[in-house]
Design goal:
By secondary structure, this protein is an alpha+beta fold. Helices cover 62% and strands 13% of the residues. Strands 1, 2, 3, 4, 5 and 6 form a 6-stranded antiparallel beta sheet that branches.
Length: 293
Amino acid sequence: MAETRRRGISLLTKLTIGILIPLVISFIVIGYIYILQIEEIKSIATEEGARSLNDLGEKIIKQKALDIAKQIEIFIKSHPHFTKEELYSSRVLKSIAVQQVGRTGYTAVHDNKAINHFHKNPKIVGMDLHTLAKKLPEFWSILKASLKGRSRGYYNWKDADGVIRSKYMFCTPIEGTDLVVAATTYIDEFSRPAKQIEQRIVNRAERTRIVFLIVMGVSLIVVILVTSMYSRTIVQPIVYLTDVADRISLGDLDTKIEIRSSDEVGMLAESFDRMQESLRAAIERLRRKRSSG
């Protein structure tokens, strides 16, 4: 049998690659779109949830400041004979002016010259808040604006443990007085539920991603195995016919062609069978002609 040399990429490899490449690309595209959609849904859910809760927190803080301002206004109007000193020393007015906002926030009262008169921290009472301008510029910016009317905004506050968190403050003047109510608290008190939901979404998304990648990986392995087996069923008969043709070319005309399929490969096998019979008949005629001559 003559030695057969393969040149280039084999038909099996070409067929396998031709089938696998589109499938792999499809898997990658589907996986990318799926994971992208998970990330987008996670982002929308968490961002919108946190934003909505922060908006709700701002409204609660604002309403608290407005309520306190109205209560102080009523108290002052009901005590027209009180001097400023008597008002500022009134325990009843202090209980109205300093109230809790959320879990850790509070209200305070200063005048339009930025002098504090009511605060949960006794050390702040009587302080000129101008002294905080350099130390707390964001806080002072909101408070400074409150000296002329309503103001609101965010500022960073450093806790005792060194953690910096964002606070929201709303200030409103008390009608008929030179006093201003300020209500403030950490805004994450309101957005914390959204953070918890975000963490659950992140965990669920991560588990979903892992399951999806496992399913994708297993499916890809199955596709590769099935494709390889399918390609071999197509290529093996062709390799067999090549071997048969090689034998016939070396004079082995008795080689049996054992392919009985009804597809194109079967038709090719029948052609080889007819060629073999034709060669056998031609050789027989040539022998008779030589013997008769």
